[in-house]
Design brief:
Layout lengths: L10 E6 L35 H8 L3 E7 L16 H4 L9 E6 L2 E6 L8 E5 L2 H5 L14 H15 L4 E5 L15 H14 L3 E3 L18 H16 L5
Parallel strand pairs: 1-2, 1-5, 5-6, 6-7
Antiparallel strand pairs: 3-4
């Protein structure tokens, strides 16, 4: 059921990693996990409506603009598909002649753009692979692209390209410490996300602040039920920080 809020009727884009992918709903250069990787076949996810992001967009009463999510991508790095790369953070809009996806009576429809469609809201959900691959969290020289530096660069580029858009940063859910490392706890990456959201004038959704079980196939990728839980956590985490 749509939430009556400031996002109603807005075009919403996503920049993310495998958790936010779905084959057929990404730019052609993006690699999907769901509906592309055989490992994900047991997840039960086959439609946009099964994903956390489409459930959130529907609850907010918005339309999907662009989902620029790439399976396996980190925020850190200089080369594609890093979140700091311009093909990721500057390609969150639809140009005339391309397609975007609108909701009509609860069903997603593929629509040809006759003019450029800019995102009015951008959901940023990245950092899980930085945690998995143990990217330096903070305190390293900038040329090592530590997580704080890289995430900050990503937000700067997004806000520079889309100055009128509302950017919402998302913390990483904690189903369990699937990749335990005392020097790289997922909570440390979440603290960076929270602080940089404030510093860059972004809104925040904080799923990690809620103690809830998210069902996954491997401790990282949500199942069909896990996506529903994650969507609920996202909405609760957003409402806990920002008035609707």
């Amino acid at each position: 059921m749509p939430v009556n809020n400031i996002f109603s009727g807005k075009h919403i884009s996503i920049i993310g990693d495998s958790i936010s992918t779905l084959k057929g709903y990404l730019p052609s250069y993006c690699k999907a996990f769901y509906m592309q990787n055989p490992y994900a076949d047991c997840s039960g996810i086959s439609r946009p409506e099964d994903t956390w992001w489409m459930q959130v967009i529907s609850a907010l009463g918005g339309d999907l603009c662009v989902n620029n999510s790439y399976s396996g991508s980190l925020v850190c790095g200089m080369d594609f598909p890093a979140g700091t790369h311009l093909l990721r953070c500057n390609e969150l809009h639809c140009n005339a002649g391309s397609y975007w996806f609108s909701m009509h009576k609860g069903t997603m429809q593929r629509t040809l753009c006759t003019t450029q469609v800019l995102p009015e809201v951008i959901l940023v959900y990245m950092g899980t692979n930085d945690w998995i691959f143990r990217s330096a969290i903070d305190g390293e020289p900038e040329n090592k692209m530590n997580f704080r530096f890289a995430y900050n660069q990503m937000l700067h580029k997004i806000r520079s390209k889309y100055p009128e858009s509302t950017v919402v940063c998302t913390t990483l859910f904690q189903e369990n410490e699937a990749v335990p490392d005392a020097l790289h706890p997922i909570s440390a990456y979440n603290e960076v996300i929270r602080s940089l959201a404030v510093e860059n004038g972004c809104l925040l959704s904080d799923p990690a602040a809620h103690d809830a079980f998210v069902e996954t196939i491997d401790g990282i990728h949500p199942t069909y039920q896990g996506m529903h839980t994650l969507a609920e956590l996202w909405l609760a985490g957003f409402a806990g920080h920002n008035p609707l």
